[in-house]
Design brief:
4-stranded antiparallel β-sheet, 3 helices, 98 residues, single chain, Alpha-Beta Plaits
């Protein structure tokens, strides 16, 4: 993986990254987060993958990501998907019912 562009956004407390990765199959978000965390020397929980895209038939993937300076910054500016919110709520409800 090589990082093509890094843009610091001090107002939001993050770096916006565009990277390129040549790999046989489409990388998962988890694999991508682990690799970016190693490259940027930041914790995995502070990294958000926006998009993993490629052209048809090519093995080069363009990755758009954000790396926050703190977990608080991430929770302040990132939206939690509806599916993840429902899952967290149902787990919370199960824990209270026991």
């Amino acid at each position: 993986m090589k990082i093509l562009e890094t843009k610091k956004n001090t107002v939001l407390g993050r770096e916006e990254i565009i990277a390129e990765w040549e790999i046989e199959k489409t990388p998962s978000k988890i694999e991508t987060i682990k690799l970016l965390a190693e490259k940027l020397k930041k914790p995995e929980e502070n990294i958000v993958i926006e998009k993993i895209g490629s052209e048809y038939g090519k093995r080069i993937f363009i990755i758009s990501a954000k790396a926050y300076n703190t977990p608080e910054g991430k929770s302040k500016f990132e939206i939690i998907p509806r599916k993840a919110r429902k899952k967290a709520q149902s787990e919370k409800d199960k824990g209270e019912n026991k």
